[in-house]
Write the structure tokens for this entry.
Amino acid sequence: MNKKIIIITICLIIILIGGTTGYKVMKRHHANLLLVSSKYIEEKARDCYNDNLCLTNEITLEMLYNNNYLARQANPVTKEYYNDKSYVLRNNNTYTFMIVD
């Protein structure tokens, strides 16, 4: 009886530790995927602005698509396409990607 309880306890500990570690790894991985995706879109918006084709402070994905700076972009985690009204906010020399649902 004691051996069964010890084995069950060890199995539960392994599952709990493995589950929380796996969750943290996946969460960090998804955050990194979103970061890479947004940085790529921000870079393309910067290129469009530097080429004097996107001169507004809010550079929409639609503008980037129309000027051939981007192919249609999808969220790397959910695999859903971003809304065309999502935009990159340009403030001085900083660019921030804002997602519109």
